[in-house]
Structure prediction request, 64 residues.
Amino acid sequence: MSKASLALEKGGLVHLERLAAILRSLTPGELDTLELLLDRQARTTIQRALKELDRGEGIPLEKW
Prediction:
């Protein structure tokens, strides 16, 4: 694995122009999804909700 790849994995190296190009190409929905995935608390909530769904728990949509 290259040094650049290892640095990227550790979060130490980012090609800002490439990142900017990718971010500009995202739709509003994709940007919202990215924000949720980068938010640790949101990820935890989503994971918990998915586990509850798998167990058949949760509130049916009709009762919201």
